[in-house]
Amino acid sequence: MNSPQPSHDAQRELEQRALRNVRGLVDKIEGLDRIDQRSQKRTLIAITVGALVGVAVIVAAIGYISNRQEANPVVIDPGSDVGGSFGGNRTPEYLAMNPNGLVPVIREDDGFVLYESNAIVRYLAAKDERASVWPRDPKKRADVDRWMEWQSTSFTPAMRDAFWQLIRVAPDKRSAAAVEASRAECEKLAAILDRHLRGRDHLTDAGFTAADIVVGCAAHRWLNLPLTRESRPDLERWYATLKSRPGSRQATSQALT
């Protein structure tokens, strides 16, 4: 059975609040020192809260690449609000960029267009000439990629119903059964993450990478949902470390919307 959808006015208010939070990430995420000296491309990103975690991780990745650059920065232009109550994602122009009609999408000055959240994160992370967040070594990079896939195919999908019901649906319209099923599935996955992080500072042996950015955004949602969770000391320790990074404080201090 489909979950009830919030009213138009309520949905628009949620979108506006979340959009402000996402835009704040651009200014607050801790950055790298410089990017590829050959890159002078301007990145346009069409964003809306409709992409849920996807938008947050992409703007976070852009922030890592563009903040405090010394030369040839990637300039971030939030572009137009697209999707949800804003509309605009079914126009011929938008569908020419993404035939799925979904957000987010990036478009660069040379005409390069890319959609799909983690594909965009990988592309932006690969711009780092030091290869700190996207390792050059194939095995290390595959390990990062594995956790990014786990986030997008397992952890975030399992969380969807709990998030939607508890954050987006009015209390009198919520499905307790949907929340519980989602919670139970997320507990299994949180246990996997907790065990993996035992004795580790980061998700992979490559140090802080795109995997920590992407899975960290999903963990932020899970650990801040208003429900009862099992104690996961290593997951919570890892998340606290991410949250303590100067660039993450603005984003991780925001309420879920």
Descriptive notes:
By secondary structure, the chain is mainly alpha-helical. The protein folds into 2 domains: 118 residues, Glutaredoxin, CATH 3.40.30; 115 residues, Glutathione S-transferase Yfyf (Class Pi), Chain A, domain 2 (Up-down Bundle), CATH 1.20.1050.10. Helix content is 52%, strand content 5%. The chain has 9 helices and 4 strands; from the N terminus they run H-E-H-E-H-E-E-H-H-H-H-H-H. The protein has a 4-stranded mixed beta sheet, with helices on one face. The radius of gyration is 18 Å and the shape is globular. The relative contact order is 0.14. The N terminus is likely disordered.
Task: Give the topology, please.
Layout: H1 8-28, E1 43-46, H2 53-66, E2 76-77, H3 92-97, E3 105-108, E4 113-115, H4 117-125, H5 138-168, H6 176-197, H7 210-224, H8 233-244, H9 249-252
Parallel strand pairs: 1-2
Antiparallel strand pairs: 1-3, 3-4
Helix pairs in contact: 1-2, 2-4, 2-7, 5-6, 5-7, 6-8, 7-8
Which secondary-structure class do the elements indicate? mainly alpha
Shape: globular
Number of H- or I-type helical stretches: 9
Distance from N terminus to C terminus (CA atoms, Å) equals 23 Å
CATH T-level topology of the largest domain: Glutaredoxin
Tell me which CATH architecture of the largest domain applies here: 3-Layer(aba) Sandwich
Radius of gyration: 18 Å
The structural domain count equals: 2
Report on the biggest sheet: 4 strands, mixed
Question: Which strand order do you get reading across the main beta sheet?
Answer: 2-1-3-4
